[in-house]
């Protein structure tokens, strides 16, 4: 950068003890081990319960990502009703409920209803330990359990990609731009054509009288 006119010269202060203010991450390996130990402790405290609740499959927002399915916040009341599960019962067995989300298609409703039914079939609910339920616990020694709900009930792919193929002669002859222009033009003048046709029919009817 050049200097012009009778201005003061730059006096940049670069010696500001930056070594004391720079952010470092020397505890990365230790934090990783701490998180792993916390996960192990949480799994041991939960017993046979799943580590994470079951989540619905929802469409990602915006036209850029709406072909993908991801985990949602909770199931809607309509989805619980389709699976035959009450709201209070759903919360007690690890199924979150989202009152704000609405089902806007039959496909998403049926997909999440099937997820709930599959989860309910594999779920084993143990009664509370008290004097009344003494000796009523099932034998789970030979049962293989899956603690990860996303592994047992994965989110399906939103769309199945079509494989490459040869273009047919009919597709080569099809003129997409001209077809769209014709459709837009027909939609634009549909009202005027209907009015002109009605006026012509009225004139013919008056001429016959």
UniProtKB/TrEMBL annotation:
Organism: Malassezia cuniculi
Gene Ontology molecular function terms on file: RNA binding; structural constituent of ribosome
Any one biological process term the GO annotation gives: translation
Chain spans, region Disordered: 188-209
Family from the record: Belongs to the eukaryotic ribosomal protein eL13 family.
Keyword hit for Isomerase: no
Ranges annotated as biased composition (Basic and acidic residues): 199-209
Cellular component terms per the entry's GO annotation: cytosolic large ribosomal subunit
Keywords, alphabetical: Ribonucleoprotein, Ribosomal protein
Record bears the keyword Transcription: no
HAMAP family recorded: Ribosomal_eL13
Protein name: 60S ribosomal protein L13
Pfam families for the chain: Ribosomal_L13e (PF01294)
């Amino acid at each position: 950068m050049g200097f012009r006119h009778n201005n003061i010269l730059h006096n940049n202060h670069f010696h500001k003890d930056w070594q004391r203010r720079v952010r470092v991450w020397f505890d990365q390996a230790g934090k990783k081990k701490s998180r792993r130990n916390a996960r192990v402790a949480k799994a041991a405290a939960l017993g046979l319960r799943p580590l994470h609740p079951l989540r619905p499959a929802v469409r990602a927002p915006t036209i850029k990502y709406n072909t993908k399915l991801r985990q949602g916040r909770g199931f809607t009341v309509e989805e619980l009703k389709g699976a035959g599960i009450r709201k209070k019962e759903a919360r007690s067995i690890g199924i979150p409920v989202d009152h704000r989300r609405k089902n806007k298609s039959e496909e998403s409703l049926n997909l999440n209803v099937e997820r709930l039914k599959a989860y309910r079939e594999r779920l084993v609910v143990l009664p509370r330990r008290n004097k009344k339920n003494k000796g009523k616990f099932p034998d789970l020694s030979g049962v293989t359990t899956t603690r990860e709900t996303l592994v047992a009930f994965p989110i399906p792919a939103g769309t199945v990609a079509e494989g490459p193929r040869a273009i047919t002669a009919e597709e080569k002859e099809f003129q997409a731009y001209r077809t769209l222009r014709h459709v837009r033009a027909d939609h634009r003048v549909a009202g005027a054509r209907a009015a002109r046709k009605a006026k012509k029919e009225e004139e013919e009817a008056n001429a016959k009288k």
